[in-house]
Amino acid sequence: MTCTTTFYKALIENATKESIKRFVVGGIIKRTIIGKGPLEGKSIEQILILKRHINDFLPGIYELPSGRVEEGETLKGALFREIAEETGLVAKEILNYVNHFDYSSKSGNITRQFNFVVKVDNPSNVRLSEHDGYAWVDPSDFQNYNITENVKRILKEQFESTKNTDDKKPLDSNLKKRKRESKI
């Protein structure tokens, strides 16, 4: 799904019609690795989750990189800013809109979190500034983390949507292929 300025505005307008006035954006950051052991040579998709600080709202919960949309800020601007602030990663592109969920914030306000799949530069170079830890989870282990039901649903949907896709090659394979092609 292509995300345009009109699309972002429609998301906000629809939420406002439902009397929701506080907005958060969440980034689904993926990487593909090559499996080891019994999964030797297989491509494994992983998604980045962050562990909330022990003194924060919902301490110890793992979540998607996410944060509040500030006054006058666009959804895309907020998403790219939050990813940079929380992970040190540079967001390059929104690949698609996934869904939203509503929750009650620390102050009791109903908040809508809009979730997007985001392409970043060098996804393995995570540098935390606001969280106690992070994990790259895959379909076999995400259920082992302390994650809200809303985020579990997103992770499950994302993994199921790519479960039978063999056309995604890990970064290492793409690099090796390019090196071979450059020698020809």
Plain-language structure description:
The chain has 184 residues and is of the alpha+beta class. It has one domain: Nucleoside Triphosphate Pyrophosphohydrolase (Alpha-Beta Complex). The chain has 4 helices and 7 strands; from the N terminus they run H-E-E-E-E-H-E-E-E-H-H. The chain has helices spanning 5-17, 75-87, 149-162, 171-183, and strands at residues 22-34, 43-52, 62-63, 66-68, 91-104, 110-120, 131-137. Strands 1, 2, 3, 4, 5, 6 and 7 form a 7-stranded mixed β-sheet that branches. The protein is globular and about 50 Å long.
List keywords for this structure.
184 residues, alpha+beta, Nucleoside Triphosphate Pyrophosphohydrolase, seven-stranded mixed sheet, globular
Our Rg estimate from Cα atoms comes to: 17 Å
| Low-confidence runs of at least 5 consecutive residues | 166-184
Secondary-structure arrangement, i.e. CATH architecture: Alpha-Beta Complex
Described by the principal axes of the CA atoms, the overall outline is globular
Query: Which sequence of SSEs, written as H and E, runs from N to C?
Result: HEEEEHEEEHH
Describe the main β-sheet briefly.
7 strands, mixed
Strand content: 25-35%
Strand tally: 7
Mean pLDDT: 86
| Secondary-structure class | alpha+beta
How many helices does DSSP assign? 4
